[in-house]
């Protein structure tokens, strides 16, 4: 009796090609300990934007690591990335040893033309600014409204939408949105708009006195004080449109 082709006997599954969006971590140094520290400050559980990622699939790109730097084991590093709500799935670029270590850590090899939704660059040294390179923007289509004061330790995240706050945002409180943030009261805590890459997002505040403000990962802290003609005034915050990725903070007049 002739054998039945295997493809005709598989009733429970099929194997098909698929595509998915990936976040790319562009590594610039083989010092993974230092890189982990910087990532933890920005995206770790106790970092500035711990909810920036949502278990996004990640490809680790070593194409910009200098050739004279020795590749390192990736097992511990990939485990750390999961604490930043990232899911490492592949490696690409750089010295061939990076691929070898990646395979040992359970990662696949990604081609250079893999579909990438955004690049995550290592934060710069300046305390008041971190630049997030965004390739695909994600607009916020709807609105969340908060009408109660936010105390220190409280946090509101408007995932996939704008955020409107009708009461004070006290020091130690955080408001985060994938779209715009409107605070029709004093803003004294942290406000992070365009949290998942919307570079067109803006922050509006009736009384601007923030600990930190951020648009699409570019942020400024109170260590760099606002000008006197803006501090405590009605103002808006947006990203410049000249390609420099810097925050513009402007007073609004009635």
UniProtKB/TrEMBL annotation:
NCBIfam families assigned: minC (TIGR01222)
Keyword terms, alphabetized: Cell cycle, Cell division, Septation
Matching HAMAP family: MinC
Similarity field: Belongs to the MinC family.
Coiled-coil region(s): none
Self-association and partners: Interacts with MinD and FtsZ.
Function per UniProt: Cell division inhibitor that blocks the formation of polar Z ring septums. Rapidly oscillates between the poles of the cell to destabilize FtsZ filaments that have formed before they mature into polar Z rings. Prevents FtsZ polymerization.
UniProt keyword annotation of DNA damage present: no
Chain ranges of the Septum formation inhibitor MinC C-terminal domain: 145-242
Septum formation inhibitor MinC N-terminal domain mapped to chain residues: 13-88
PANTHER family: SEPTUM SITE-DETERMINING PROTEIN MINC
Protein name, entry field: Probable septum site-determining protein MinC
Organism listed in the record: Rhodoferax potami
């Amino acid at each position: 009796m002739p054998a039945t082709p295997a493809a005709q006997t598989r009733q429970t599954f099929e194997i098909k090609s698929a595509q998915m969006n990936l976040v790319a971590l562009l590594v610039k140094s083989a010092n993974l300990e230092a890189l982990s520290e910087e990532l933890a400050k920005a995206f770790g559980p106790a970092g500035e934007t711990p909810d920036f990622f949502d278990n996004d699939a990640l490809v680790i790109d070593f194409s910009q690591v200098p050739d004279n730097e020795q590749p390192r084991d990736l097992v511990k590093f990939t485990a750390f990335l999961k604490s930043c709500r990232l899911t490492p799935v592949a490696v690409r670029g750089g010295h061939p040893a990076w691929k070898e270590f990646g395979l040992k850590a359970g990662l696949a090899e990604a081609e250079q033309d893999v579909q990438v939704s955004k690049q995550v660059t290592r934060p710069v040294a300046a305390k008041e600014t971190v630049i997030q390179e965004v390739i695909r923007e994600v607009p916020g289509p709807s609105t969340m409204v908060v009408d109660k004061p936010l105390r220190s330790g409280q946090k509101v995240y408007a995932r996939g939408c704008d955020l409107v706050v009708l009461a004070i945002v006290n020091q130690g409180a955080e408001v985060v949105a994938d779209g715009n943030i409107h605070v029709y009261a004093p803003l004294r805590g942290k406000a992070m708009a365009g949290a998942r890459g919307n570079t067109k997002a803006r922050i509006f505040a009736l009384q601007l006195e923030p600990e930190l403000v951020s648009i699409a990962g570019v942020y400024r802290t109170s260590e760099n004080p606002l000008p006197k003609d803006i501090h405590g005034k009605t103002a808006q915050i947006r990203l410049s449109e000249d390609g420099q990725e810097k925050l513009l903070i402007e007073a609004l007049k009635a």
